[in-house]
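Notes continue from the previous slide.

Worked example: a multi-chain complex. Inputs as given:
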Amino acid sequence: MKTEDLIGALVADTATPTRPLGSTMAFAALVGVISSGLLFWGVLGPRPDVATAIATPRFLLKFVECAGLAAAAGTSAWAAMRPAADRRLGRAGLAAAVAIVVAGVLAEAFVVPSADWGTRLLGTNWLHCLTLVPLLALPAFAVLVAAARNGASTEPGRTGAILGIAAGAIGAFFYAANCTDDSPFFVATWYTLAIAATAVLGAFIGRRTLAW
Amino acid sequence: MTRDAAREADWSDWMRAALDGDAAAYRRLLDALTPVLRAGARRGLTRAGVGTADVEDVVQETLLALHLKRHTWDRAQPLMPWVVTVARHKLVDGLRRRGRRIELPVGDFEEILAAPEERDPTEAGDVDRLLGRLAPRQRDIVRSITVEDRSIAATADRLGMTEGAVRVALHRGLKALAAFSGSMT
């Protein structure tokens, strides 16, 4: 085929309007959060003492950490799926999200005697955390990856990993309402491991589904 | 503003107009971009040491990718950095696939590659081969609009379809071509 013939077809195809990627991804983020939230209400629900827990800083910090990470990873993924987009805001956001977690750990180390550090870190439910966070992340992950196929990631594995982190953080956000381990030591260890697992899954799936 | 910068600013304007449905601006843009993409593909293939026989295939795959991904360009930004990133991605992609397809050492092909090209240099075979993999109806429509250079209206008329159905089939056909080219071995 001659190149000018192909150009003729591409020009004719402008009759089919494009859908702005921003609205596709914003809609996917909304649907992703709602579907993970519905799964949470369906299988877990909040812990029984949630009314009193809500007044404790450790419990609240978990939501700040998870929401911050989800927003930062979302921003980063948004840049990763558009060629030549500026990645600085996403990087700064991820650095800020990590800084919040580190600050929480330092504050906990300051107020808790070192003899108790081990029990705080191990908590009671780390196995729940490692399995339920990825489970709750799955609906959001599926929706986000499906929508990201409309993007153009020059590094599909990397983009998939970032979407895995975003979905993992969404799953962790909901799981945090059920989880009775509120120590920043526990969160920095087990939540991070659970989200790392969704990141690895994301890299693996992204390489296959986000190539174009 | 240098001449290049002025030219690139025009291209950004044309793409903005194209995204708003201005087909004439889109044709101007693609006609202007094609020689740039061709030069880039030629340089890239030469640097990779695989000869320049496939230049036009790379150009066509890149045009297809630019077209199908044009909504990923941020219209507040200049167009060219986005075009260059997409073109480089398709070049690397093409080299990877060609690496898989041509498993013999390049040396064995030197004579063939060095032979004067007899075909039209703006003609490439990959897209034609991929056309063969489309569903018959889709292939008819894409062929009618590309090779036979008919408009959507004329194609609809000839095939007894509505213009809307031809539009949809053309769009799906182009997407399928791009998907095939990504999985071509």
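Summary box: Residues 125-185 of chain B form a domain with the Arc Repressor Mutant, subunit A fold (CATH 1.10.10.10). Confidence is low (pLDDT under 50) at residues 102-110, 112-117 of chain B.
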